[in-house]
Design a protein that fits this description.
The chain is an alpha+beta fold. Helices cover 37% and strands 16% of the residues. A three-stranded mixed sheet has the order 1-2-3.
Length: 106
């Protein structure tokens, strides 16, 4: 059976940041994080455009920031447009250097 498209997107984003997708990215996770990835310092929230349509952009960012703060991680939101290559990465300016280091320094 083929992977669901949102799982494929979560895997793509996790690989980009050098980690794996969290198979249970919810409060039921056995990995100790609600993040969509198993990154050590980034809290990554991944959304496809179809799933994102129900929330305002700022609600999504604020909610991710609150969850990341609880886990003492850096909040990162990744948005995938259906049928388009790549994805958008949204990071607060105070965290941009740290996130960039996680992507390019390793």
């Amino acid at each position: 059976m083929a992977d669901k498209s949102w799982k494929r997107v979560e895997r793509e984003v996790a690989r980009y940041f050098g980690c794996e997708r969290n198979p249970l990215s919810s409060r039921h996770s056995r990995h100790g994080t609600e993040s969509d990835s198993l990154h050590d310092i980034l809290y990554i929230e991944t959304k496809r455009d179809k799933k994102f349509l129900g929330k305002t952009f700022l609600d999504l960012l604020r909610g991710t920031r609150i969850k990341a703060k609880k886990e003492q991680r850096i909040p990162v939101v990744c948005l995938k447009e259906h049928g388009k290559r790549g994805f958008w990465i949204v990071v607060h300016s105070e965290h941009l250097k740290n996130v960039a280091n996680e992507v390019w320094v390793k």
